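The protein record filed here.
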Amino acid sequence: MSLKLAPTNRHDSPKAERRKALGAYYTPPALVDHLIQTALGPVIEAACRQDDPARALSALRICDPACGAGAFLIPAARRLGEALAGVSGFDVDFALKEVTARCIVGWDIDPEAVRVCRRALARQAELDDSAVQVSCRDALWVGGEGMFDAILTNPPFLNAIERRKDSDACLRAAYPELGGTADCALYFLALADRLVRPDGWIGMVLPRAALGATAGDRLRRDMRHRPREIGLLAQSDSFDDADIYVTLATLGPAGPATVVDGARHASGELGDPNWWRGARTLLDGPATAQARSPSAAFQVEAGMTVGEAYIAARLAADEPAGAGQRLITTGMIGLGECRWGERPFRFLGRRLSYPRLAPSYEAPASLVRRLERSTRPKLIVAGLARCLRCYLDELGECQGFVSTYHVTVDGDALDQLRALQTFLHGEQASERFRRELGASALGGGSITLTKRFLQDLIR
């Protein structure tokens, strides 16, 4: 699936600024066409095999629960109308009116998007706006199961931090199959699994991270609808104003899955609840022998919490020498080296060349204790990188910033820390890192390291 994304034409779409705030991005036509083929196509084919295909097609229900300006619903209505005309003897215009009024359903929380979508569907079918089933509502609170034959959607890409805090507890109660850090796209995936009939199909644009995010483990394991095609887009600029890798996910009744990555493709059972790891296994074959770390009692802790990092950035001094621990960001960590002092680095709004932090009465007790613990030998591991990177702080003079991890060992044994550093920089460890966590890669290719993965890797 080598998709060539043409320039987008969005003159009739809601304003980009508001859509971005909602986590919504205009879906390129090439992506829409592909998901209509893979997810709506089987639904239409099944209806056409019925004794009365015209009646079966007219009874279909197709929904986009985050419809935006109608990127999916408009071509879906055309495709369904053409199919109805082909089996009924109706002319295409009449068939399009029928399916638009009967079969197409759209929801969105943005009133302007709803207005644009409703008007576009009505104009295409030569209907009054009131005849179109597009309404302003938050789909995540829609009850019921098995209401639709297909769902086609590009859900909002909002992470747990960007969501409204007052709705988080209610969402977690409504979707117990998801963890608390699940992003909005995973909630829409759970919603689609509920709303689509058991023999129906789902076509979704998902952030690649949704394939392997820990918060979605239970959902991906227990879903009624199983992956039938996973399309891994190679570029991270598929959407204007969004530097993110996306996946075209087609789900349907149980069956073998096809994984497509550019010109490469493979088919087989995708039994792993980590769909990214399962997809890489189908494409690349089984992993090499399990990477094993040196046998020692290692401990892992985060460099800092986000809250502590904001305080540390405010209190940090910029001094080549002096009191306090050297603050180390993930970007300073190379393969066995630390770039502290080589150039200015960003610290949450500040640029510092020699960032240091000493215990202070202004610092919370948790941060003071963290600084005290950091005065021992340790590995500081980058939390965001293309491959595993760590630096051995032999003298215990450094403190990792946010998005880093400290690894210590009983007895502060430097030989054990050096052996672990060699292991982490080896190809086997990095292969496992990419295979298990690569779905989280950002536009630049950097992968987010998790504490759980690091603990499992080195135990």
